[in-house]
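Form P-L/3: holo structure prediction, ligand flavin mononucleotide.
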Amino acid sequence: MFVIRLTYYSRNQIDHSAGSAIRELGAILEASSKNNNAAGLTGALVFDERWFLQTLEGRRTAVWNTFKRIEADERHSNVMVVDARNIRERIFENWWLALVKPDGSDREILATFLRNGHLKPDEMTSEQILELMAHLSKIGSSRRLAPSFSDRFRARESILSYE
Ligand SMILES: Cc1cc2nc3c(=O)[nH]c(=O)nc-3n(C[C@H](O)[C@H](O)[C@H](O)COP(=O)(O)O)c2cc1C
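OUTPUT (holo model):
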């Protein structure tokens, strides 16, 4: 059994207006929590109003099958795989979703990865993107948005502040 880690970034195509961002991100969070748990996938999806950055870890077939479904999703576009490799150990404990808020409490943590205060994965090398995700995996435990009820509530708060 091969375990791999796949990382990609893409353009966020979710309309920021009205309640639609909350609804769409809530739906992604819900589907992902359910499916990824069932498929034994760990990782993280981070986003801001322009970009998604995601890492998925798990069995090779499970990761690629999930990725194919995600890639076809019209809520994002220009999906760029930056890395896919066999791994001995996972760096994410479970699956979570987080909002990158460069002007919020993330500023310090993210400072070295931002360009003029913004997340710009298209201007980062694969190594820099992997470093960012590895960094987030370490701090993730305190900020992760897991599928339990209380955590989902936190997720909604986080999504709310996205608008
Ligand atoms: C940026 C982005 C990331 C996503 N990540 C996942 C994911 O990790 N796992 C997942 O099952 N679906 C993910 N989705 C949603 C899938 O594209 C798809 O809508 C969903 O898997 C369908 O699930 P369902 O058949 O259970 O309704 C993501 C969608 C987007 C736009």
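COMMENT: The CA atoms of residues 113 and 128 lie 7 Å apart.
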